Amino acid sequence: MLPSLVRAQSAEAGYPSRSVTYVVPFTPGGSTDVIGRALTQKLSERLGQPFVVDNKPGAAGAVGAGIVARAKPDGYTLFGGTISTHAINASLYKNLPYDPVKDFEPVCLVAMLPNVLIVDPKLGVNSVAELVALLKRDPSKRNFASSGAGTSTHLAGEMFADLIGVKLDHIPYKGTPPAMMDVSGGLVTFMFDQMTGAAPLAAGGKLKLLAVTTGKRIALAPQLPTMIESGIAGFEMSSWQAVYAPKGTPKAIVTKLNSEIVAILALPDVKDKLQTQLGMEIVASSPEQLAAHMAKEIPRWGALVAKSGAKAD
């Protein structure tokens, strides 16, 4: 047997032998954090060592991604990556502290997430058409929040502005919860964000959901029209969540992590939380499938960034 193969098998057999850090590049409470905590709890139980979430928010996930890109590639630092960190940021930032392809090992594409258009119930609008009419007649309302500059929620707002022909001011936050708080408080007119954080607040009457950004209506909220059904032709986008390790992490460890994560995503309680309660579409891909997904998404979002003129703040 080749020495390299022996070392790889040894690394897998003994992994993990101590605590593993799972970096979430956004504040607690958002989709990436929810997924990270669901996965780390189960990984800890299954593998017998603590898997601990470490929130490192900032710059649409670039701060956390930069930390992981420089981490030792031994399997003891993992990353909760997103459409922002591993697709959009590649074209939005001129000087990223990491390369989404060269600095990471893809582990698993976890899930696709529908975005929703959110407003304050007290705003007095009940449809996308009514929101568009308000934005066109009242300059003081021409603003939108996002979970951070360069996130898919930022670009969704830019695309919306482009398609309705109204210049809007972008107000970035360091994560979903504070952005939603200001929308629900009437300080910002609207935002796009994942159903994950929006659904509970909408159920409690603190937010109103107007439409989903997917091509079809979603099972979690079948009453919500799509943006296209609401009259915004060509508006379709979905976010995604994935797991990565630093480039150079032994293949045996990446394979073991992928196998465990895929198994975890098939567990009834995890499926119920992510799929039924939060509206995520579980993917549970192989590392190769995640790499292929990124190869399509990076140029796609690059084109959208160029068209919208969006820039990182």
Automatic annotation (TrEMBL):
Family annotation (Pfam families): TctC
InterPro entries named among the record's database cross-references: BUG, Bug_dom1
Family: Belongs to the UPF0065 (bug) family.
Protein known as: ABC transporter substrate-binding protein
Organism listed in the record: Rhodoferax koreensis
Lineage: Bacteria, Pseudomonadati, Pseudomonadota, Betaproteobacteria, Burkholderiales
